[in-house]
Amino acid sequence: DLTQPPSVSVSPGQTARITCSGDALPNQYAYWYQQKPGQAPVMVIYKDSERPSGIPERFSGSRSGTTVTLTISGVQAEDEADYYCQSPDTSGAYELFGGGTMLTVL
Amino acid sequence: EVQLVESGGGLVKPGGSLTLSCEASGLTFRNAWMRWVRQAPGKGLEWVGRIKSGSDLGADYAAPLKGRFTISRDDSKNTVYLQMDSLTTDDTAVYYCSTISDPDYWGQGILVTVSS
């Protein structure tokens, strides 16, 4: 399983940090998705810390042990969304999603 | 530009079956690993399963769904399928197909409603 906080709230311009923890994480890459209401998920971070083309530089990823973190620096109103971490399980045969974190921009 | 378009969703009665299709364009489909993910109303993302490419066309499934769901592909049609049997109301969800790649690409999703 991958565990995320259900919600995170920040004011515009502040830094949001969303964590994801799981036993498989030390041995597998982590991926992060942003999902806005009524839309398909969009990958914002792959392989722990790589940012796809078109994703703003304020999105970054890091890891420490069994926890990975999505950091959004200088949060903007448009960043309000649900965020999901994802990773293969320890065997690599399955993929896991975290329960999701609702980011609220106050 | 990579595009994935799901089709085949709709209303089905409990115990029934349904097959979803996902047609891909803008990529070399025969080399692409593909996955299905679903999202029940108001809930989070749930991994359904994946199918590999090339000579190893095996599929893997989420444990609770194994035996009821089958993923297949037709590379001549650039299409991946999700066959769902013995459906229950718990299978009501938006179903997404996506590539397994860095970065990946997702379809717009298609709604499956299981209701009597």
Secondary structural class of chain B: mainly beta
Protein structure class of chain A? mainly beta
Number of distinct beta strands of chain A: 9
Q: How much helical structure, as a percent, in the residues of chain A?
A: under 10%
The average pLDDT value of chain B, as a whole number, equals: 95
- The rounded distance between the terminal residues' Cα atoms of chain B is 40 Å
The helix fraction of chain B, in percent, is under 10%
Tally of alpha and pi helices of chain A: 0
Spatial gap, N to C terminus of chain A:
30 Å
How are helices and strands ordered from N to C of chain B? EEEEEEEEEE
The main β sheet of chain B shows up as: 6 strands, mixed
* Spatial extent as radius of gyration of chain A: 13 Å
Query: Average pLDDT value of chain A?
Result: 95
The fraction of residues in strands of chain A falls at 35-45%
* Main sheet: strand order of chain B: 2-10-9-4-5-6
**Gross geometry of chain A:** globular
Number of strands of chain B: 10
Q: Tell me the Rg of chain B in angstroms.
A: 13 Å
Quaternary organization: heterodimer
Written overview of the protein:
The complex is a heterodimer of chains A (106) and B (116). By secondary structure, chain A is an all-beta fold. Chain A contains no helices and nine strands. Chain A has strands at residues 7-10, 16-21, 31-35, 42-45, 59-64, 67-72, 81-88, 95-97, 101-105. The model of chain A has no long low-confidence stretch (mean pLDDT 95). Chain B is mainly β. Helix content of chain B is 0%, strand content 48%. Chain B has no helices and ten strands. In chain B, a hairpin with a 7-residue loop joins strand 5 and strand 6 (59-61). The radius of gyration of chain B is 13 Å and the shape is globular. In chain B, 35% of the residues are buried. The model of chain B has no long low-confidence stretch (mean pLDDT 95). The chains are: A mainly beta (106), B mainly beta (116).
Summarize the structure.
The complex is a heterodimer of chains A (106) and B (116). Chain A has strands at 7-10, 16-21, 31-35, 42-45, 59-64, 67-72, 81-88, 95-97, 101-105. Chain A is mainly β.
